[in-house]
Amino acid sequence: MRAVPIDKVRAGMQVSRAVYGASGETLLAAGVTLTPRYIQRLQELGVLALYIHDEEVGDLEINDVVSEKTRLQALKITKEAMDNIRLNPDLELAKVNSVVNDIVEELLSNKDIIVNLVDIRAMNDYTFGHSVNVAILSLITGIAMGYEREKLCKLGTGALFHDIGNTLLPENVLNQDRPLTGEEENLYQRHTVLGFEVLRKLENFSLSVAHVALQHHERYDGTGYPRQLQKGAINEFARIVAVTDLYDKLTSGWGGQPRCLPFQALELIIANREKFFHPDVVENFMNTVAVFPIGTLIMLNTQEKGVVVQTYKEYPTRPRVRVLADSGGKRMVPPYELDLALNPNCCIVRILDEGN
Ligand SMILES: [Fe+2]
């Protein structure tokens, strides 16, 4: 199987990984053969990419960093909480704590956590999928930073609700596929203060966790909002969420921007360390996501074509590759595997099939 962006998906392709909506409903089951109608519907739902079966590539095992059950439960609880907040400014904290705890336990029991899964969620329910992704990425970063359980649970809760203020904004500010006007941008920036106001009034909700909503758009050099805080004055959890929030937005094509590939988003974040982002956070975040996720079609410097089959935390740009075609484009029968970590003369020069 391999990941294919939605604009490159064709009728007749077979789906190899199910696509879910924000409430955990199956939008498309694994094994389904795509028809023009399915493709149109997936585009309407804002699905970004699909995993499809590819005879040439063969089977690949791509595991999510948390179980599907826990991810769907987190989505459901986040959606419920955010949907309810307008009518009843109260969170069912016991449910939230329990799901954050499950995520933390699963991540801690996973020895070598690296995010390989390409995003196949539906953008129409963007906020919820985004919140869960940001929570998971923040927690992996927190683990890399040596946080213990209690601190991780606080970080996870803050990350899950960092954008809760969005639910109090007019819908037309959020659902734009063009850059915001000055007036809209001012309104959008209010989501930080609005979110903080909601969270800080909740009984038994930690004030430092509520500060994640307030400060996740503050920037290391003081150019963020709402208070232009700098460096160490920014809440510790908010510094992490600042990075993971942007990474998830870039790789999902938020706000009508072209979708970045993981290596492009990582480059942008690394380039902005000590400008927008705390250097320690960037250092620890860098190794949490695969630069070339499993299932990515690539071209090597030898002009051979292959697919990434395994990634290594210690060698982010040097995964294991299954070579599918020789330098002349002739199919390898059978394909052979090459460990770039053990072959310093070989490297990836291009990603294929992503249109760039
Ligand atoms: Fe935000």
What do you see in this structure?
This protein is α+β, with helices and mostly antiparallel strands and 356 residues long. It folds into three domains: 2-52, Molybdopterin biosynthesis moea protein, domain 2 (Alpha-Beta Complex), CATH 3.90.105; 68-285, Hypothetical protein af1432 (Orthogonal Bundle); 297-351, no CATH class. Helices cover 39% and strands 12% of the residues. A five-stranded antiparallel beta sheet has the order 8-7-6-5-9, with no helix packed on it. Strands 1-4 form a two-stranded antiparallel sheet. It has a two-stranded antiparallel ribbon with strand order 2-3. Helix 3 (93-109) crosses helix 4 (126-144), helix 4 (126-144) packs across helix 10 (236-252) and helix 5 crosses helix 9. It is globular and about 65 Å long. It starts with a strand and ends in a 5-residue tail after the last strand. The model has no long low-confidence stretch (mean pLDDT 88). Fe (ii) ion (FE2) is lined by residues 162-163, 191, 216-217. Fe (ii) ion is lined by residues 162-163, 191, 216-217.
